[in-house]
């Protein structure tokens, strides 16, 4: 929510700006106010898929077949989703080809 710095009235988006309906003051829309939601979505998606090479040594392994190369071993880790209705999801990464996927129970 944006407020007019001149009179304190709530401002409404108009093109690339916010406009005060009361006194006519306009303010340029900041990038943060436009893409706040978008950015958090992107970060979340990135986190959930990639197992970085930095922490791969510490990950446990499991016997599971990689759908990509047929290898029978993969690193795995659990990730708690933010939504309360969803259970933990296990992410797997093939030890051979690096293929990453998520497992549903
Ligand atoms: Zn105003
Ligand atoms: Zn593989």
UniProtKB/TrEMBL annotation:
InterPro entries: Rpa12/Rpb9/Rpc10/TFS (IPR012164), TFS (IPR006288), Zn_ribbon_RPB9 (IPR001529), Znf_TFIIS (IPR001222). Residues 62-102 form the TFIIS-type domain. One of its GO terms (biological process) is DNA-templated transcription. It comes from the Archaea. Zn(2+) 1 binds at residues 4, 7, 20, 23. Zn(2+) 2 binds at residues 66, 69, 94, 97. It holds the Pfam family Zn_ribbon_RPB9. A zinc finger (C4-type) spans 4-23. Keywords: Metal-binding, Transcription, Transcription regulation, Zinc, Zinc-finger. GO terms for molecular function: DNA-directed RNA polymerase activity; nucleic acid binding; zinc ion binding. Belongs to the archaeal rpoM/eukaryotic RPA12/RPB9/RPC11 RNA polymerase family. This is Transcription factor S. It comes from Methanobacterium congolense. The gene is tfs.
